[in-house]
């Protein structure tokens, strides 16, 4: 089975750069591409055609929407799975032996949290234009219908209906830093939202990678449990032959049956773990694959991602916190500027129906000085609030650095511990394999009980399970270290 991804942006005659560009930053817009579910008509090298897909129906195998695109936030490229969006109309992703990079790419393309963060970035970018518009002339107009004793042509003590209209224009000349501060706040907020978008993409990528590793590990555990069960079945058949020929006691056959039941329990436990991981996998990317890449292949892929390049200070969450500090600094400046008036150049013309006089027909051209002062010391309190917000933003920035350093350090420690466990499990597995055959030979000579043979087989499974779990923990730690410094998606994109 496979997934065909269709490029809707190309049909509209737009390049992805034109579609996704927001200022100098290209953002993930998952809703601009759509998944087309259809049969993968092309035949493979084996001559077999792939099957068509149906909408998701869990827990059966299914497929759902997947899109692709790329993102650049804060000068850092954010991408889906490489080649997920190509020049051609379709790109095919197989549901058999699905790779880590494909799973992460689809998850990024369709995750709603990324769509939300993208919309926030678009909103904050539009807010910059809103704040800049204050420096453009503002046209004003108004119409006031009503009654007045001064607008009619009759006696002054009479009233008649009239309509008064006003039109004018106003241009800001100077406002003592109010407008520039608002623009600065909007720009800093935009930068913060871009970095938060990048951080959201990293978090989604890490979550999907962790689920993929868990699914791959569960897949390996199912195979290990199946091998244990098959081996115990073979051992049980041998014992049954010995019991039939009178070489072994019937109790040994019962003990072999118990070991088979235990192997079945291991198999059911491994299958449950696989089903749970597969369910989480399908919930995020909308498709349950036939099979994912093996843990060894995934380990080789992650090892080839290379060493981390980014430091703590270039982590998206830290950069977002720093942008929040800059926004708070601008808010302090904005609060201080509230003490001062704004200087405008104004032009207006007023007219009313009725007889022309000084009250119903007037013009104005000149400089306007506008300001306000609150007797409750509002401006002073605004400054205090802005300073408190700045202090909170600075503390939040330090907290983000602390969180990043802690996550990075714990990931490195966990990776080292997992490596040690892998070595120990491999040695234990090797010893158990060599002991199993020896124990069987000694059992046939009545020098060892059947318990030693069964326990040796059990030890092999436990050692293999420990090795698989340790390898999965190691890969998780490596991926978490990349995500901690915001380097995971960039590394996957280059692969």
UniProtKB/TrEMBL annotation:
Keyword line: Cell outer membrane, Membrane, Transmembrane, Transmembrane beta strand, Transport
Gene3D superfamilies: Outer membrane efflux proteins (OEP)
Superkingdom of origin organism: Bacteria
Alphabetized GO MF terms: efflux transmembrane transporter activity; porin activity
GO cellular component, one term: efflux pump complex
Region annotation (Disordered) ranges: 46-74
Recorded family membership: Belongs to the outer membrane factor (OMF) (TC 1.B.17) family.
Protein's recorded name: Type I secretion system outer membrane protein
Organism, as annotated: Candidatus Tokpelaia hoelldobleri
């Amino acid at each position: 089975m496979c997934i065909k991804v269709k490029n809707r942006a190309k049909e509209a005659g737009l390049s992805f750069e034109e579609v996704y560009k927001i200022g100098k930053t290209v953002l993930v817009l998952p809703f601009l591409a759509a998944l087309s579910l259809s049969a993968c008509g092309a035949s493979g090298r084996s001559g077999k055609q792939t099957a068509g897909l149906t909408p998701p129906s869990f827990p059966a195998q299914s497929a759902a929407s997947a899109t692709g695109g790329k993102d650049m936030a804060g000068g850092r490229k954010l991408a889906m799975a490489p080649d997920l969006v190509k020049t051609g109309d379709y790109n095919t992703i197989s549901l058999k032996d699905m790779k880590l990079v494909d799973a992460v790419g689809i998850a990024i393309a369709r995750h709603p949290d990324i769509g939300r963060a993208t919309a926030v970035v678009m909103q904050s970018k539009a807010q910059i234009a809103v704040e800049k518009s204050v420096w453009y002339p503002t046209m004003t107009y108004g119409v006031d219908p009503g009654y007045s004793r001064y607008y009619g042509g009759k006696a002054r003590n009479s009233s008649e209906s009239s309509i008064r209209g006003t039109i004018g224009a106003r241009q800001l000349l100077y406002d003592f830093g109010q407008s520039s501060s608002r623009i600065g706040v909007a720009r800093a907020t935009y930068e913060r939202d871009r970095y938060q978008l990048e951080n959201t993409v990293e978090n989604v990528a890490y979550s999907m990678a962790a689920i993929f590793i868990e699914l791959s590990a569960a897949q390996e555990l199912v195979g290990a449990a199946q091998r244990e069960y098959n081996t115990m079945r073979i051992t049980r058949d041998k014992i049954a032959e010995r019991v039939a020929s009178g070489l072994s006691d019937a109790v040994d056959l019962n003990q072999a049956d118990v070991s088979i039941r235990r192997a079945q329990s291991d198999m059911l436990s491994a299958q449950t773990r696989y089903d749970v991981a597969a369910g989480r996998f399908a919930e995020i990317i909308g498709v349950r694959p036939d099979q994912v890449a093996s843990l060894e292949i995934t380990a080789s892929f992650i090892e080839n991602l290379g060493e981390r390049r980014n430091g703590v200070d270039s982590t998206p969450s830290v950069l977002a916190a720093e942008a929040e500090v800059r926004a708070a600094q601008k808010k302090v400046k904005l609060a201080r500027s509230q003490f001062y008036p704004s200087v405008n150049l104004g032009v207006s013309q007023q007219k009313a129906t009725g007889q022309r006089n000084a009250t119903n027909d007037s013009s104005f051209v000149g400089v306007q000085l506008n300001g306000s002062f609150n007797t409750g010391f509002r401006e002073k309190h605004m400054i205090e609030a802005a300073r408190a917000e700045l202090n909170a933003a600075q503390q939040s920035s330090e907290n983000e650095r602390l969180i990043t350093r802690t996550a990075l350090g714990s990931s490195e420690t966990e990776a080292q511990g997992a490596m040690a466990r892998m070595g120990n499990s491999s040695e234990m597995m090797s010893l158990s394999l060599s002991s199993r055959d020896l124990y069987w030979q000694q059992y046939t000579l009545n020098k060892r009980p059947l318990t030693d043979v069964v326990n040796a087989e059990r030890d092999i499974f436990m050692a293999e399970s420990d090795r698989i779990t340790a390898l999965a923990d190691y890969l998780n730690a490596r991926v978490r270290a990349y995500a901690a410094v915001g380097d995971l998606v960039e590394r996957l994109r280059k692969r």
